[in-house]
Amino acid sequence: MPDYKYQGTSRSGGSVSGVMTASNKTELASLLKRQQITATKMTEKGKEFNMPQFGGGVNAKELAIFTRQFSVMIDAGLPLVQCLEILATQQENKFFQKVLINTRAQVEGGATLSAAMRGSPKVFDPLYVNMVEAGETGGILDTILQRLSTYIEKNVKLQRAVKSALVYPVGVLTVAGGVIILLLWKVVPIFSTLFAGLGVDLPLPTKIVIALSNFVGSIFGLLIIVALGGAIFGLKVWYGTSQGRFVLDSIILKLPVLGILMRKIAVARFTRTLGTLISSGVPILEGLDITARTAGNAVVERALQKVRKSLEEGKSLTEPLKESEVFPGMVTQMIAVGEQTGAMDAMLQKIADFYEEEVDAAVKDLLTALEPVMIVFLGVVVGGVVISMYLPLFSLIGKLSSMH
What we know:
- The chain has helices spanning 25-34, 60-75, 80-90, 94-108, 113-118, 126-138, 141-198, 204-217, 219-239, 242-254, 258-279, 284-293, 298-312, 318-324, 329-341, 344-403, and strands spanning 3-9, 15-21, 38-44.
- It is mostly helical and 404 residues long.
- The protein has three domains: 3-44; 60-153, Type II secretion system (T2SS), domain F (Receptor-associated Protein); 159-404, Type II secretion system (T2SS), domain F (Receptor-associated Protein), CATH 1.20.81.30.
- A three-stranded antiparallel β-sheet has the order 2-1-3.
- The radius of gyration is 29 Å and the shape is elongated.
C-alpha cells in the first residue's frame, strides 16, 4: 500500500501533518477521521510534483473584492458557510469558484476557515491564512478581513507603480529596436542597391548604416539575435535560483534612479505587511517570517531573515535593521520609537503611508523625465538612419544642379 502525506486540522483547531499508509485517499480520510483529524490536503508520497495547470488563477483585484465582500457579510451576521456559498455563486472566475466551493465544503465538514484556505496556497498565501487564523482566534474575523482587503488594494497600487515605471521605457525601447531592425533589414538594402547603380560617393554615416544593414541581413546577424534571445532566457532561468535572484536584486537596488525607487517600494511593502500582521495579532517572529517571504526582493528577504534570527536571540528589532544597511535611517529610527512606545503596528503603518506617497511622487517624476529623453532618443536613432540614407541623394542633386 502507498504512503500518503497529509495536512489537516485537529479537533482543537490546530494544524497537523504527517505520513500514513492507506490503500487510497478515501481510506486515508477515514483513518484520519477516527483520529479526529479533518484532512485538508492528501498527496501520495513520491507524486507530490504534478504537471502545472494552465488557464487558472486569481488576480489581486479579484481577491481584494472577495475579501471586502466577505468582511461585510461576516459583519452583517451571516453564517460562514452561507457567506462562502453566496460568494462562490457570484464569482465569475471559474477557478476561484471551485476553490471557494471546496473551502465551503471543508468548513461545512468541521474544518476552520484558515485550515480550509491553507489547502489552496495558490489563492490564499501564508499571510492571508495566518491573518484569517488570528481573526478566528480573536473573534474579530470581519475586522481582519477589512484589513486584508485594504492591504491587498494598497499592494496592487504598489505593483502598478512598478509597472508604470518600467513599462514605458521598455515599451519605447522595444518599438525603437523593432523599427530600426526593420529599416536595416528591408529599407536600407533598397537604397544600397540604388547607390551602387548610380556610383555615388557615400559619406561615412551612410557607409556605417549600410554595413549594419549587411550585418543584420547576414547569417551572423541572425545568430546574434538568437544568442541574445538565449542570453535573456538564461538570465531569466538564473534569476529563478536563489543566488541569481540575490545578485540581480542587489544590482537593481544599486542603480542610480531605479534603485532608489525599488528600495522605496521594498520599504513600503515590508512596513505595510508587518504592520498589518502585528495589528491583526500575529506574533512578531511569525510576522517577520511571512514578511520576508512576501518581500519581493531577495536582498530585503535575506535582511529580514537576519532580523528575525537576531530577535530570537533577544536583541531589539532596530539593531539588526541598522546593521543590514538596506533600510533608510528614518525607517529604523521610527521603528525604534514604535518599540519604545509599544505602538509598533501604528508606526509601521505610518512609515508605509509615507513611502507609498514617496513612490507615487517618484514614479511621476521618473515618467516626466523619461518622456522627453525617449522622444529625443527615438528622433536621433530613427531619424539618423533615415537622414544617412538621404545624404548621398542630396550630394547627387547638388552635383546635377551645378552641371546645369
